[in-house]
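Lab notebook: predicted structure, single chain.

Context: the supervisor wants predicted structures on file for every construct in the current expression panel, including those that have not yet been purified. This is the next one on the list. No modifications to the sequence; it matches the entry in the shared construct table.
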Amino acid sequence: MSQLFTGAGVALITPFTKNNQIDYNSLETIITNQIEGGMDYLVALGTTAETPTLTSEEKLNVVELIKEKSGDLPVVVGMGGNDTRTIIKQIDKFNFNGVDGLLIVTPFYNKPSQEGMFLHYTEIAKASPVPIILYNVPSRTGINLEAETVIRLSEASNKFVAVKEASGILSQITKIGKYTRDDFSIISGDDLLALPIISIGGKGVISVIANALPGKLSQLIKLANSKNYDKARELHFELIDLLQLIFKEGNPGGIKALMNYQGTIENILRSPLYKISDSTYNEIKDAYLKLNL
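Prediction complete. Output recorded below exactly as produced.
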């Protein structure tokens, strides 16, 4: 099996109107921008999409629009949770036409053991008709999917094709790269670490900033994957200040502020999230204006 979901993926935001409804027209524009910007695949219903605040009907509508407008780009759908049986029921009822993979986050809040997570994922793999990207983001879930568990999962089923790694632990990520099978991919879950992770064997990123700058982000990843590290590093340095700022007050507040300044969306988040401060908004604007666009 060749490596799936390599290159530049985007964790799509969910734009809202001023009356807090989903802005499907703006979402369509964002998808078009991703295609024109050279991105490699689209990720729906991830963390950046404010998925916990969407109703079941809204989630279905968002996925259907993304599938319809994705063109030739593969579509990955986020479908995590902390109850194995509930996720399997969701999979059983889900329309997988036009869906190329699932992004399954580690169980949150109840903090299972490594063995518990191994069993959780293997049961999901039995139910899923499409490949699975493991998603490790301890800062949000309170649990770390350790390298040994990822390695076991990669050996347990070919359904597991990649891990989206957002732990920031480079020693752990390196171990995963060394001991997983050759067709298993490491995907950076952090824009700031995409280049370092690719340099130790990673295959790309699921990006936040690509919502606003798909061309820049896809170019950086293509350069890094072709081992043109000097040029990739130049582009990374060009983006570094803006990358830090869009996460200064949390995600997706920063990226929505940037896209609002670009004129793409309203600067609206759903409670309990809230828009970033005016001072950080202005810092993001100033950093954006310094880019070589």
